[in-house]
Sequence to fold (519 residues):
Amino acid sequence: MQTETEPRTDLPPKASVEPGVFARFFINLADVATFIGRFFRELVLPPYEFKEIIRQCYEVGYRSLLLISITGFITGIVFTNQSRPSLTEFGATSWLPSLVAIAVVRAVGPLVTALIAAGKIGSSIGAELGSMNVTEQIDAMEVSGTNPFKFLVVSRVIATTITIPMLTMYTIFVAFVGAFINVNQNELISLTSFIQEIFGTITYLDIFTALVKSVVFGFTIGIVGCYKGYHSSRGTEGVGKAANSSVVTAMFLVFVEELFSLQILNAIRGS
Amino acid sequence: MSESVISIQGLRKSFGDLHVLRGVDLELHRGENVAVLGRSGSGKSVLIKIIAGLLKPDSGQVFVLGQDVERLRGKELDAFRQKIGFSFQNSALYDSMSIRENLEFPLVRNVRNLSRAEINRAVEEGLDGVGLLQTIDQMPSELSGGQRKRIGIARTLMLKPEIMLYDEPTSGLDPITSVEINKLINEVRERTGASSIVITHDLTCAKTTADRVAMLLDGTFERIGTFEEVFTDPDERVQQFYNYKFVE
Fold:
């Protein structure tokens, strides 16, 4: 046992200079990469928090249904209404169901769901974990021999990754309902024709892409919310910042991912 | 003298330019209660967070139950922490869980093969031990500060720790509830035989719960001894602490 009181030499020296803006950016990037790496490591290692994952799926999914229903329905009606004048000019109003189908499945459905989820779920995760951090609940879990990362982060990220694709499919369905009511009222298109038009237009690749995108969006929203909350600075101001920053960052990343997925999808379609 | 359960040598910790601990030495013996006194922001809580492995020291060594805390990782660290009970200043009850779930939380994750009946019995005994069995199905937000403190202590006792770390157990409580918490700290020692470090700036708490008092001044333990030994010291900083009563 070492008994002298001099500083230990086997520990890394403390940084004496504050890092600059660029250095801080790369330090943050490394932090995020480490956080994501830790997520995948904890994901595969036992024990598994199944009960908490199911509870989080309920919180993330079921509790967002009403908001998603209203938003999806309105999106379907508004999109159909806004597209009608352009199609009428070319005498192509019969293409309205096809246009709605392509737009909703390929872009609007996944994007609207992700943005709503970033606002509702991302902020809630950021605020909840931030608040737990401030009130030392995360420390309390750690000292009780429990892995707070697995219990709080892994369960929430799994929940968002599973439920946001499900919510996306639901948004698409509800948007179709809204679109059908609109075209049925204006163009007198029957339900059978509407369904035939939709499924005649969209492909398996469209649905598959929407699902994959939603998985990526769900993961992004979950990991950003958890990262911001888990690393929130102390104090109530930190909780607010964590919630706010979760939404802004997740929304920004969702748009970036949408752009990349579009490029990839175009490349696949072109080949 | 009985064996040492915590041995701290030359502990230093800084946050930026703020040097909080500047070479702390302390020995805690089995079955002993030591109160750490000091002003707010003097580094008392930092000290026990380092002991529990929540913070890393800049230098110095912390041996707890014969293990170098800083070198513990993964399962070793988890197993070590089961032997440490940490009562947080603001209780740190999980506010999304009921009191029953709060007490179950460490138990179901650390003790394997427990039946539902055994878990229920352990939770009820834990709550009964702090006189709050009636709160079992309540949420933390429905409880008073004193009740939350008691339940926080009950939760830490679920894993039968060998060492208890109390962070400001009486802060924010009225004098009568503070006396009850002090009694509870002594009861815990009698019932479990656990050694304790009590972080406080409450002299009544220090006098009634501790065998020895360690006075943290300017980042080091300037005075360690019985309550009387520490406060007979003519050092002005110690006397300022002792002579404070109330402002009229």
Q: What stands out?
A: Chain B has one domain: 32-53+73-243. Residues 10 and 23 of chain B are 4 Å apart (CA to CA). Chain B touches chain A at residues 7, 9-10, 12, 14, 23, 25, 49, 52-54, 58-61, 63, 78-79, 81-82, 84, 86, 88-90, 92-96, 105-106, 109-110, 155-156, 159 (CB under 8 Å).
